[in-house]
Amino acid sequence: MAQIYIDQSIKIEQRGDSKIAAARGKKSCVVIIDRRLKRMMLKYSRRLTRKRVFLSLFALGAALAVSKLYEKEDKVTLDEEYEGNEVAIEEIFYSVSLKLSKNINKKDIASSKVGKRCWADLVARSPDLANYKIRLDIKDRARVLKLLGWE
Q: Rounded mean pLDDT of 46-59?
């Protein structure tokens, strides 16, 4: 049983590519979400609030990153990037994790501050350090929509 920490380089709503990293010990995975995909998701999901789109993309990136590292009974700690929305992010994360065939126990998912000294923070800022890299761009639109249940 180990702890997996999740952090991001910049908030999803900021311009540019967003990087979401998960670290389990010294193993890590980074998910890079292309800025064009973020823009397309905002246009596609007019029925949702902008905030909900950003929370969903953060949780999706976190779930994809964790899927490469997760082992049975690991604990997952999501960084508190969006204060007051921790429960919503944890729910989306759990939902996407199930679709990725990761049977993460809901009680093993928590939100907390992930410090600047955490390996996940360093990997989010320097993606070349990651053991695994996943890039989501416009061609992954159908997969992203399916994982989020927006189809």
A: 84
